[in-house]
Design brief:
The complex is a heterotrimer. By secondary structure, chain A is mainly alpha-helical. Chain A is built from 10 helices and no strands. Chain A has helices at 5-46, 71-101, 106-118, 123-134, 144-168, 172-180, 185-196, 198-213, 240-248, 253-288. In chain B, a hairpin with a 4-residue loop joins strand 1 and strand 2. Classes of the chains: A mainly alpha, B mainly alpha, C alpha/beta.
């Protein structure tokens, strides 16, 4: 087939539209497939009574055995991520304040670059790092404490970088206005500049929390996992991603079903938090701008 | 210090006679210390891994880096099988992800009707928010059977002559791991590419359009060259993510401690090795060897990440987009 | 003839990096008078006024040499935070704190600089808004966001915010350059009121404005002070050729 030049150019332009459109379909197919399979395979167990509160099942080869629940794992994830946030949020925010607001010192640049590079360190390395350090403290090598620390090591660079970005969007005129009123720099920074950056900071913290809630790799040799409800910060603790990993590899179908149920739960939680936080931060931002 | 009634504006008494200066200094001291703590965290990771790997350093020296054997029974350890596994799976991931992600980014920025841009962008970000272990579960139960019964036999029949697809089709191998990885890094590459394409100044596009260029010609001649280093940076960032990905790979890569001989060979990446063997290690020497593998992974991913950040920083000046 | 001197610079030189933006400026500001600083863009007038309350040094890689005396005391040997509480500033573009209400904007200095009884703060807010001629327009909505105000209102809010800190000197860096003519007139009237209580220094590129509001005027050119005189004298009987050329519009 032959085209005269304009027709040929038009044909090319249309083919590109179709081709790139197919790329979008290919890129998004997994999202649909994951949600679909989780709903099909995990929907049944998720809506069982007590699935969210009961303890996980033992291996069971009988055809008809109870699937039970994921209570300790939800609890454990909340405890681990809570612990990690307690460390990572203040550390990350304050480090970002230093890097952004006291930038004239060369140290600030070094910190911001380091945090940036740390966001690229594989999470399994963070786990190995905490393990390698606490292996000399056998009483807490496998515990909620080390699990929380490993997750906080993942969260700190994320919180630092996003907070820094948020601080950078605060116009300089705000800092000048505060300083010109004779407000001390630390007060102006914490109570005026940081407050103005709050929607961005909140986004970063949520991003970090969601990332940490889904991490299994750093917990493999720190939190370790457990079938029991939380029983002390120096004891191994359960976590949803660990449960999914363990039960996915289990040969027993009742445990596999629990893995899918837990997956559906985690997916729903992440999607809901993601969408809800976008909406809330959008509103917070608009409110702060005074609707102007 | 001041009266409780409003003083006349002409009062020469300033609001506060003395302003204590120590709070400012204490504050700067605290946050500087925390900032230095971030540097300490980075150094600490290297120090702790190096310390844990000492025994392996002493036993194998540089030979560890080109040792192709990983044999706990005879206590001989070398990193090559896992470096090979890591590079092959990440290479496959990049080959699949790059064209798809770039195509999707071009569609979103230049082809899609405006109302589609937001939803597609959100969907891509949701894809990035799905935990690794869920990709693993999906790979193991949804993709693996399909690879084993459909894709891999077809590849063997049609492309067997290339020698790339020797060996039995198990479905749990470096090819499947690479495929799952590609799905996981598409959001990274796509998001960065989209941002840099959107950052192309309108004047650039208008210049091309005013010469009578079609939509695609404008994209090809005016936008992609302008956004090139940003796209490259995003791709390397995606590669960095692939190199360190753990859970999904561990669940589908087959977990065999040998250098893969074909794309259908089961293998092991450095991260899946750590996940599988750190706790079930045969003894202190193997533990040390695993931690040394961790150091190698850290070095690879740091090099890749620093390269990507420098590229993206150079393009956007303000520091790169935050892509996780 | 000038009355008491409130604020005074002595051989003031300010740098950005290695480059001096103003050189060797010695200038006296009489108490409770309005002094205007005029000159073409880039003559250093903004840099100069930012040195008067130590704001210049808040930008990176900047340096100041010389002295600025407030009631005879050198502000450069004092704590900058304390200096800025005595010498308030209004900026080129209105910069209210976007995250705060009108009330919280005006009371910011009081609330952040130590503890004050609630009714003291309330009274100061009302007084400052009245002084800034904004009270009547906002008295029913002091709890609404500051960004809901118009540009001219925002600038008067910034003036009120500076006044609430109870300063002795008010520096204004081209306060009307971002405003429409109507809002500009309001601010100019306001400046006439303010000089009863405050020493005002205003930077402006608008010669008519200087002629309208200022008692004294200083002309800057290329980082140096060319001439300083009572406004009337400077505009009608300039001593320097450069001044004459500038005010007759023959350059700049």
């Amino acid at each position: 087939m032959r085209f005269d030049r304009p027709a040929r150019r038009k044909f090319l332009s249309h083919s590109i539209a179709v081709l790139t459109g197919l790329c979008v379909v290919a890129a998004l197919y997994p999202l649909v497939s994951i949600i679909y399979s989780a709903a099909i395979r995990g929907g049944g167990v998720l809506f069982q009574v007590r699935f969210l509160t009961a303890v996980p099942p033992n291996a069971c080869s009988v055809v008809q055995c109870a699937t039970v629940g994921i209570g300790p794992d939800i609890e454990g994830t909340v405890i681990l991520v809570g612990l990690a946030s307690l460390i990572a949020v203040p550390v990350g925010v304050l480090a970002a304040i230093f890097a952004s607001e006291y930038r004239s010192r060369g140290l600030g640049r070094a910190i911001s670059f380091t945090a940036d590079v740390l966001t690229g360190v594989p999470s399994i390395i963070m786990g190995a790092f905490i393990f390698g350090y606490f292996v000399y403290y056998p009483s807490i090598t496998y515990s909620a404490i080390t699990g929380g620390l490993a997750l906080s090591a993942i969260m700190i660079p994320i919180v630092t970088r996003t907070t820094e970005e948020a601080l950078r969007t605060v116009p300089n005129s705000i800092r000048e206005a505060a300083l010109a009123l004779g407000i001390s720099k630390w007060k102006a920074t914490l109570r005026i500049v940081l407050v103005a950056a709050l929607p961005g900071v909140a986004t970063g913290v949520l991003l970090a929390v969601m990332r940490a809630s889904g991490e299994a790799a750093p917990l493999l040799f720190t939190a370790l996992g457990s079938n029991l409800y939380f029983h002390g910060f120096n004891q191994p603790v359960a976590a949803l991603p660990l449960l999914i990993y363990d039960f996915a590899l289990s040969p027993y179908s009742n445990q596999q079903k629990v893995a899918w149920g837990a997956t559906l739960f985690l997916l729903a939680a992440i999607l809901i938090v993601n969408v809800a936080s976008r909406y809330m931060i959008h509103r917070l931002g608009r409110q702060m701008a005074g609707g102007a | 210090m001041e009266s409780t009634t409003p003083s006349p504006p002409t009062s020469t008494a300033p609001i506060a006679k003395k302003v204590p200066r120590w709070p400012d200094r204490v504050f700067v001291g605290i946050i500087a210390a925390i900032g230095v703590g971030i540097l300490g965290l980075a150094l600490g990771i290297v120090a702790v891994l190096a310390n844990g790997a000492q025994q392996s350093f002493h036993r194998f020296g540089w030979g560890f880096l080109y040792g192709t054997t990983w044999d706990p029974d005879h206590q001989i350890f070398g990193v090559v099988p896992f470096v090979a596994g890591t590079l092959i799976t990440s290479g496959i991931a990049l080959l699949i992800a790059f064209p798809v992600a770039l195509g999707a980014a071009i569609f979103v920025t230049t082809q899609a009707p405006r109302f589609l841009r937001g939803p597609v962008g959100t969907a891509v970000e949701l894809l990035a928010a799905i935990p690794s272990v869920i990709y693993g579960l999906w790979g193991l139960y949804v993709i693996h059977p399909y690879m084993e019964t459909v894709v891999e036999p077809a590849l063997k029949t049609n492309l067997g002559w290339t020698g790339l697809f020797n060996g039995p089709a198990y479905g749990l191998d470096v090819l499947t791991a690479g495929l799952i990885l590609s799905v996981m890094i598409i959001p990274t590459i796509c998001a960065v590419s989209r941002d840099t394409l959107l950052a192309v100044p309108d004047a650039q596009k208008e210049a091309a359009l005013s010469l009578g260029a079609t939509n695609w010609e404008t994209t090809r001649t005016a936008m992609i060259p302008y956004a090139r280093s940003g796209i490259l940076g995003g791709t390397i960032l995606g590669l960095g993510r692939a190199l360190g990905e753990t859970m999904a790979v561990t669940m589908v890569v087959g977990n065999v401690d040998k250098v893969p001989t074909s794309l259908l060979s089961p293998g092991q990446t450095i991260s899946s090795l750590i996940a599988n063997e750190l706790l079930s290690s045969s003894g202190p020497l193997q533990t040390a060897a695993i931690l040394e593998c961790g150091l190698v992974l850290l070095a690879i991913s740091l090099a890749v990440n620093v390269a990507a950040r420098l590229l993206v920083w150079r393009v956007t000046k303000t520091g790169g987009p935050i892509t996780l | 003839m000038m009355g008491a001197v409130k604020l005074k610079s002595e051989q003031l030189t300010a740098y950005y990096g290695e480059k001096p933006a103003i050189r060797d400026i010695s200038l006296e500001f009489p108490d409770r008078r309005v002094t205007a600083i005029i000159g073409p863009s880039g003559c250093g007038k903004s840099t100069f006024i930012r040195c008067l309350n130590r704001m210049h040094e808040t930008a990176p890689r900047t340096r100041v040499e010389g002295k600025v005396l407030l009631d005879g005391e050198d502000i450069y040997s004092e704590d900058p935070v304390r200096v800025r509480r005595r010498i308030g500033m209004v900026f080129q573009k209105p910069n209210p704190f976007a995250t705060m209400s009108i009330y919280n904007n005006v009371s910011a200095a009081l609330r952040f600089n130590g503890r004050h009884p609630r009714d003291y703060v309330d009274a100061a807010v009302v007084r400052s808004l009245q002084q800034a001629a904004l009270w009547d327009e906002v008295k029913d909505r002091v709890d609404t966001p500051a960004t809901s105000l118009s540009g001219g209102q925002q600038q008067r809010l910034c003036i009120a915010r500076a006044l609430a800190a109870n300063p002795e000197v008010l520096l204004m860096d081209e306060p009307c350059s971002a405003l429409d003519p109507l809002a500009t007139t309001k601010i100019e009237e306001l400046i006439g009121q303010l000089k009863k209580d405050y020493t005002v220094v205003i930077v402006t590129h608008n010669l008519q404005q200087a002629a309208r509001v200022a008692d004294y005027t200083a002309f800057f050119y290329l980082g140096g002070l060319i001439e300083f005189a009572p406004t009337e004298d400077l505009f009608e009987r300039p001593r320097e050729r450069l001044t004459e050329q500038y005010i007759t519009g023959r350059f700049g």
